[in-house]
Amino acid sequence: MLIVPAENVINWKRPPWATLGLMLACFLVFVFYQSDDDRIAEAVLDNYLASDLVDLESPVYENYLQRQIGLENASGMTDRLERFQRAVKKQDTVSQAGMMAFDMSFYRYMQENRDILWASAERARWQELREPIHTQTLELSSFRSGLVPAELTPSTLVSYQFLHGGWGHLIGNMVFLFMLGFTVEKALGIGRYLIAYLLCGIVSGLVFTAFSLGSPIPLVGASGSIAGLMGMYVAIYGRQTIRFFGFFWVYFNYFRAPALAMLPVWLGKEIYDYYFAGATGIAYMAHAGGLVAGAGVILLLGRSWFQVRESFYEPEQEAQDQRFTASYAQAMATLGRMEFDLAKAQFGALWERYPERLVLLEHLYQLAKLRPDLPEYRARTCELMNEALRQKLTERLVEVWQEYLAKGEAHHPLAAGDHNRVLFACLRSDNLKLAEKAFERLRSSGDSLLVEEACQLLADEFDKRQMSPKARHYRSLLGGPAQAI
């Protein structure tokens, strides 16, 4: 059974850099840091076969497996015992060596019971042959940087998350890391996402250690951290109904369910498999620990350290565009029916929600222009002028200003600052004629400070163009002596 969230699609305009970085880190660690593992494992096997350890350990190993099955009720060992017995029957020493040489629990069992397993001479011979092979085995990356419960260290609680047992293990984990990671990264932001990811991996490792106390078998892989992402994913959505993809033996399909409802399903599956799936080599309790840690990070700390960003719950740009198009079409239809008050309310609501879409303000301006005697026309004019200035639409700014002078100035005059903005915009666009017109309006407003500054600017501009009469004219308005250039 496999159930994974499928609510979101990735937006490549905003790539999940942290998730891609984690994937790259795991890949580089596997390719470079773990690249020598195959050579070490082959050397261990060759040295094991070159000795007579197969003859010494084979009867002990069969007895060890039977003991595990009987005394400790380790039912998962049944398949291993059957495979080993087939290898013994076929005299397949390579298969026998492969099972015994790397079984660290078996090695510890022999160390603890060597005095009763062999006579003195055999025991000394076994110790002489086995010790260097065991030391060589410990050079594998899984023992150097993996999480070994019997030798737990703070560093391995982090390093084990980036190791993998093979290409299949790596690729499988990276697929799930990508599927879950880009959504959680979008929700938390890069920094908090990375902290939460590593924290879930640490808790996952501690839970695994708690259920494997004293075990010499190392834990490697990102699956505990990825389980944490699954827990965070459903906790972020909480009771919201979202889409999942389910694979149930031969049947697969999408279905919708409350997000948090999946947490007990996933958790129950991991606990069930831990007790009943047998020796599969999968760290089920590490997964369970990651799930609980991920959900806890959001449910307990979601209002403080790991608060979900508000932008996460906003619809994607495509969905926003679709919503805007539908609402805009509705407002235009209202306008077409000449229901101006209703259209004004609809465009106003859209403008508040989509302040970056200037076309909405244009509609509000045109509707306000129907009644130039009302204050709303002046307010929309000033708003549109400011927006045009912000977007450097000088021609539109001047056009709106001139239109208001003709229609609304007699009812509600513009402020001196409004004329001053037009003057500055005209100077920047090298339109001195309109700049002078704006100055005359500014001058009539009675704001002496702005008039003085505008006079100085105009005089300087005309000086640059060697238009001395004009320059003298504006300097004379300053009250000082005119200067010939």
TrEMBL record:
<feature type="domain" description="Peptidase S54 rhomboid">
    <location>
        <begin position="156"/>
        <end position="303"/>
    </location>
</feature>
<dbReference type="GO" id="GO:0016020">
    <property type="term" value="C:membrane"/>
</dbReference>
<keyword id="KW-0812">Transmembrane</keyword>
<dbReference type="Pfam" id="PF01694">
    <property type="entry name" value="Rhomboid"/>
</dbReference>
<dbReference type="InterPro" id="IPR022764">
    <property type="entry name" value="Peptidase_S54_rhomboid_dom"/>
</dbReference>
<comment type="similarity">
    <text>Belongs to the peptidase S54 family.</text>
</comment>
<protein>
    <submittedName>
        <fullName>Membrane associated serine protease, rhomboid family</fullName>
    </submittedName>
</protein>
<dbReference type="InterPro" id="IPR050925">
    <property type="entry name" value="Rhomboid_protease_S54"/>
</dbReference>
<feature type="transmembrane region" description="Helical">
    <location>
        <begin position="248"/>
        <end position="268"/>
    </location>
</feature>
<dbReference type="GO" id="GO:0006508">
    <property type="term" value="P:proteolysis"/>
</dbReference>
<feature type="transmembrane region" description="Helical">
    <location>
        <begin position="217"/>
        <end position="236"/>
    </location>
</feature>
<keyword id="KW-1133">Transmembrane helix</keyword>
<keyword id="KW-0472">Membrane</keyword>
<dbReference type="GO" id="GO:0004252">
    <property type="term" value="F:serine-type endopeptidase activity"/>
</dbReference>
<feature type="transmembrane region" description="Helical">
    <location>
        <begin position="194"/>
        <end position="211"/>
    </location>
</feature>
<dbReference type="InterPro" id="IPR035952">
    <property type="entry name" value="Rhomboid-like_sf"/>
</dbReference>
<feature type="transmembrane region" description="Helical">
    <location>
        <begin position="274"/>
        <end position="301"/>
    </location>
</feature>
<feature type="transmembrane region" description="Helical">
    <location>
        <begin position="17"/>
        <end position="35"/>
    </location>
</feature>
<keyword id="KW-0378">Hydrolase</keyword>
<keyword id="KW-0645">Protease</keyword>
